């Protein structure tokens, strides 16, 4: 079974992943809607910018975040001026790293499911007297909900496995930023750490597998929902 | 006025340029696919922003461009029912009916209950929309539109996706909605008989322009534009040379390529060609020319073919160089012993000859 320290690592990983998903859900829905419904020349540019963390080496993403949020970065300094604390090397930094890296997966899931909602249904809702916002909340969002959840689950899985950006901006602080990948990396350098590594690897594979299965089930449900039209 | 609309809009190579008014209750807009009927309704509903327009519903101006007034679709108090019922798949029948703001209250009100009764909605309230038949879906779509309490109901080919029997059913429902609920409508279709049945006023749209407007009986049954006649499906469309006018007699004489045809006095010049529409059931057939005839035309013809069409016989006649089609009953065809080669006299009233575009 897992040792107390290992349980702490798993608990922290889950906490960081859940918080990162919670923090990016609303912005993810907003950006996903924008990319699905906004017909503007700048859309491709915005889309590329949102997708960037998916293709950038996570270490590079972490470095850019450090430049922004570190003790000498503009946001880091502002945060220090207001609260007296720091962002880098805290659980908050691990959450931010996980959120940024998981964001493209979430947005893509949301964008695709919103784009799959028949615009003529939205037109029908408008002529029936519902505003754009009401139409989104009563029609578009419920119809794309499984896809939105699938995007959230995928980004949760990605957040759980986040290493490169986390190690740069959040470091390897036990109980604060030592998530499963960081712990596995540390254990690999310790003699006799293999059995602990295997236990964490097993937990990691199990959670990721469950997340993927859940995401696929939700995506299938989304497809059925959109096809339910006449 | 229920509606006044002046719209100019271009999209790709298509231009919509119309000036329409409706005193209600039902304005029928008739046109082939691609004539701009759907675009017209979408502009009125506010789903398309036109290049230039001035649209008012009752007394409210909902769009004036250039100038700036723009009412969002949700504030126009219209409802649009299209060929595809577009029911919301995540809601049941009741959820769809009660979707519009205030529809929950309207659902229970007297008018709401009447609408539910007319559309026979109550037995299916708890069903899922995916399990409804095509006709049932269209009834729910109509109910959902009516419960939003529209000042004007826009109907975009609501029967086109249905088979003939269901289309008739929906049409008779629309007639009851018109008569019993008194909701003004703009009804767009490519089926002329539906306009005849439902509309008080009719506009014919061709290539984005209104080519005819007036009472349906005049516009559709007495088509004045060649395009309209083609769309409606007039049996005899002829293009004949004008021989002379008889102004005192109020007639003009056309050449059938041998025999002559008297038509209502027209403005075409001698030698010009005139387009003419003539319904097959307005031609009488006689074995010999009857004496003392008020009809101006008793034309010698020969039977070319006799075809049974439903309960009637379509007789194809050769008169001079022209071909005429006459529709008679099976009984008449038997009594006259019609067969190819038999000589006949075709009697045609002057007023049955509808000059097109003249």
Please characterize this protein's 3D structure:
- The complex is a heterodimer of chains A (230) and B (358).
- Chain A has 230 residues and is an all-alpha fold.
- Chain A has a single domain (4-227), classed as MetI-like (MetI-like fold, Orthogonal Bundle).
- Chain A has helices at 4-37, 43-55, 58-69, 74-83, 91-115, 119-127, 132-160, 164-169, 180-188, 194-227.
- In chain A, helix 3 crosses helix 5 and helix 7 packs antiparallel against helix 10 (194-227).
- By secondary structure, chain B is α+β, with helices and mostly antiparallel strands.
- Chain B folds into 2 domains: 3-226, Rossmann fold; 234-356, OB fold (Dihydrolipoamide Acetyltransferase, E2P) (Beta Barrel).
- Chain B is 24% helix and 37% strand.
- Chain B has 10 helices and 20 strands.
- A 6-stranded mixed sheet of chain B has the order 6-7-8-3-9-10, with helices on both faces. A 5-stranded antiparallel sheet of chain B has the order 13-12-11-14-20, covered by helices on one side. In chain B, strands 15-19-16-17-18 form a 5-stranded antiparallel sheet.
- In chain B, helix 4 (110-118) packs antiparallel against helix 6 and helix 5 (134-146) runs parallel beside helix 6.
- The mean pLDDT of chain B is 87.
- Chain A binds chain B through residues 118, 120-121, 123-132, 134, 138-139, 142-143, 225, 228-230, and chain B through 45-47, 72-80, 82, 84-90, 99-103, 130, 134, 137, 144-145, 148, 154.
């Amino acid at each position: 079974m897992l040792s107390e320290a290992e349980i702490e690592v798993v608990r922290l990983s889950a906490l960081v992943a859940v918080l990162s998903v919670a923090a990016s859900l609303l912005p993810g829905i907003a950006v996903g809607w924008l990319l699905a419904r906004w017909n503007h020349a700048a859309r491709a540019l915005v889309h590329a910018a949102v997708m960037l963390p998916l293709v950038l080496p996570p270490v590079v993403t972490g470095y850019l975040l450090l430049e922004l949020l570190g003790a000498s970065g503009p946001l880091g300094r502002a945060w220090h001026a207001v609260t007296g604390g720091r962002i880098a090397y805290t659980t908050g930094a691990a959450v931010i790293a996980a959120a940024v890296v998981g964001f493209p997966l979430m947005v893509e899931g949301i964008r695709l499911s919103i784009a799959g909602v028949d615009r003529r249904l939205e037109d029908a809702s408008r002529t029936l007297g519902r505003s754009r916002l009401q139409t989104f909340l009563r029609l578009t969002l419920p119809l794309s909900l499984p896809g939105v959840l699938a995007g959230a689950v995928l980004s949760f899985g990605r957040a759980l496995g986040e290493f490169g950006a986390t190690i740069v901006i959040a470091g390897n602080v036990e109980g604060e930023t030592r998530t499963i990948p960081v712990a596995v990396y540390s254990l690999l350098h310790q003699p006799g750490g293999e059995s602990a590594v295997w236990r964490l690897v097993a937990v990691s594979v199990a959670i990721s597998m469950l997340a993927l299965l859940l995401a696929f089930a939700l995506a299938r449900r989304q497809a059925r929902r959109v096809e339910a039209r006449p | 006025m229920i509606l006044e609309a002046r719209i100019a809009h271009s999209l790709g190579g298509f231009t919509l340029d119309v000036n329409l008014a409706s005193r209600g209750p039902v304005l029928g807009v008739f046109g082939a696919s691609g004539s701009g009927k759907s675009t017209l309704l979408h502009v009125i509903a506010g789903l398309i922003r036109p290049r230039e327009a001035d649209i008012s519903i009752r007394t409210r101006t909902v769009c004036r461009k250039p100038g700036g007034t723009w009412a969002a679709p949700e504030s126009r108090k219209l409802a649009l029912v299209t060929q595809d019922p577009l029911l919301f798949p995540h809601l049941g029948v009741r959820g769809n009916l009660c979707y519009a703001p205030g529809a929950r209250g309207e659902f229970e009100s007297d008018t709401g209950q009447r609408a539910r009764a007319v559309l026979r909605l109550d037995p299916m309230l708890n069903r899922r929309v995916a399990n409804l038949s095509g006709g049932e879906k269209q009834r729910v779509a109509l109910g959902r539109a009516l419960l939003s309490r529209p000042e004007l109901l826009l109907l975009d080919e609501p029967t086109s996706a249905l088979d003939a029997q269901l289309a008739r059913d929906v049409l008779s429902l629309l007639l009851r909605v018109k008569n019993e609920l008194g909701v003004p409508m703009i009804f767009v279709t490519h089926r002329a008989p539906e306009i005849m049945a439902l509309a008080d006023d009719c506009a014919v749209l061709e290539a984005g322009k209104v080519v005819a407007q007036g009472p349906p009986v005049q516009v559709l049954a007495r088509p004045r534009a060649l395009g309209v006649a083609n769309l409606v499906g007039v049996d005899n469309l002829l293009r004949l040379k004008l021989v002379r006018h008889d102004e005192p007699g109020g007639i003009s004489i056309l050449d059938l390529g041998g025999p002559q045809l008297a038509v209502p006095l027209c403005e075409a010049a001698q030698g010009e060609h005139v387009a003419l529409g003539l319904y097959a059931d307005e031609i009488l057939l006689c074995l010999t020319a009857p004496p003392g005839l008020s009809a101006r035309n008793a034309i010698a013809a020969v039977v070319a073919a006799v075809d049974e069409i439903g309960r009637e016989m379509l007789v194809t006649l050769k008169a001079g160089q022209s071909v005429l089609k006459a529709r008679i009953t099976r009984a008449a065809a038997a009594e006259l012993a019609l067969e190819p080669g038999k000589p006949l006299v075709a009697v045609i009233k002057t007023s049955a000859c509808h000059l097109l575009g003249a």
